[in-house]
Amino acid sequence: MSGIFSKIIAGEIPCYKVHEDENCFAFLDINPNAVGHTLCVTKKEVDKIFDLSEEDYSQLMQFSRKVALAMGKAIPCKRVGMSVIGLEVPHVHVHLIPLQAMEDATFQKKVSLSPEEFQATAAKIQACL
Ligand code: 5GP
After folding, report:
1. Is residue 102 part of a domain?
2. Per residue in 24-44, pLDDT tens?
3. What is the CATH number of the domain that holds 27?
4. Mean pLDDT of all residues in the chain?
5. Which domain holds residue 88?
6. Within-domain flag for 80
7. Residues 24 and 32: beta-carbon distance below 8 Å
8. What mean pLDDT do residues 100-126 have?
9. Residue 129 located in a structural domain
10. Which tens digits make up the pLDDT trace of 74-91?
């Protein structure tokens, strides 16, 4: 059975999509640490990042870098941070988080956004890709 991120990639569950290529898919985290918090996921449903093949791992990192560079232009922040956790959703994903302070990287402080704010944020990042 497909997991939640595979359902998002297939369009069976809605998301605020940021970018997609042949191997990877990026969308806004629904419970963001900061405005612009984006998840870059592999289209292959693999649980742990270091179980990816070298090729799949490199493709995910190149894809994440492209999205992060666009986020750095689109979202006011000191820098874009990157985390890999995976304790909640067992499908490889990179968290890209616009950082103003260390607490933005802790997953303790959350921000809530309206659907319109999510949509506008995704569009801003897309415009910088
Ligand atoms: P992790 O597995 O890395 O610990 O965390 C999973 C992340 O996925 C969390 O930050 C959570 O907010 C996000 N997430 C979980 N379910 C959904 C969902 O259905 N849609 C979106 N956009 N994000 C989700």
Report:
1. yes
2. 999 999 999 999 999 999 999
3. 3.30.428.10
4. 98
5. 4-123
6. yes
7. no
8. 97
9. no
10. 999 999 999 999 999 999
* CB 112 near ligand 1, within 6 Å: no
Burial class (CB in 10 A: 0-12, 13-18, 19+), 18: buried
Q: What is the pTM of this model?
A: 0.98
Contact residues for 79 (Cβ-Cβ < 8 A; gap 6+): 72, 99
Q: Considering only CA atoms, which of 38, 47, 50, 46 is closest in space to residue 74?
A: 38
15 lines ligand 1 (CB under 6 A): yes
Question: What separation in Å is there between the alpha carbon of 102 and the centre of ligand 1?
Answer: 20
86: left (phi over 0), alpha (psi -120 to 50) or beta: left
Provide the domain count of the chain.
Answer: 1
Is the separation of the CB atoms in 60 and 44 below 8 Å? no
Q: Is 93 a catalytic residue?
A: yes
Give residue-wise pLDDT tens across range 56-72.
Answer: 999 999 999 999 999 99
Residue 122 CA to its chain's centroid (Å): 11
**Ligand 1 atom showing the smallest separation from residue 93 Cα:** 3
Q: Report yes or no on 59 lying in a domain.
A: yes
Please name the residue whose Cα sits nearest to atom 1 of ligand 1.
86
